[in-house]
Design brief:
This protein is mainly alpha-helical. The protein is built from three helices and two strands, in the order αααββ. The chain has a two-stranded antiparallel sheet. Helix 1 packs antiparallel against helix 2. The radius of gyration is 19 Å and the shape is elongated. The termini are far apart.
Length: 131
């Protein structure tokens, strides 16, 4: 049984991203205190690395999308089953090109959906730019 009653989103991507971001914030803060531009730039660079690592872990299934996960996936060491297809409403998945939909000949086509002739058609790039 889970130690908590709600899906708080504790994930490997979240913990790793928070740890790397904290190190970057401490380095940038020390740079402000000591007046060191190098330390400030280094702290900001560490923060960007933390963001990219968190995004990569999320796309690999070690994060979670918006909303509540199924109770079986509440543990922080459980991979997300829906990460490969992309999470609905997730900016990180949309930036990676996952979970996009397109209108093809008046019909809604989801990535991986079979077309009328049985072949798979990828979704058009930038299909949801009209939102």
């Amino acid at each position: 049984m889970s130690a908590h009653q709600y899906d708080h989103g504790h994930t490997v991507a979240g913990w790793v991203g928070t740890g790397i971001g904290s190190v970057g914030a401490v380095a940038a803060g020390a740079g402000v205190c000591f007046g060191s531009g190098v330390l400030i730039a280094g702290g900001l660079a560490i923060g960007v690395v933390g963001l990219l690592v968190t995004w990569a872990l999320h796309l690999a299934g070690w994060g979670k999308g918006p909303g509540t996960r199924p109770r079986a996936e509440w543990g922080w060491r459980v991979r997300d089953s829906g990460a490969r297809a992309g999470h609905a409403g997730c900016l990180g998945c949309r930036l990676a090109g996952r979970g996009r939909t397109a209108q093809v000949a008046g019909r809604l086509v989801v990535r991986g959906d079979a077309s009328a002739d049985g072949e798979s058609e990828p979704a058009a790039v930038g299909a949801d730019s009209g939102r």
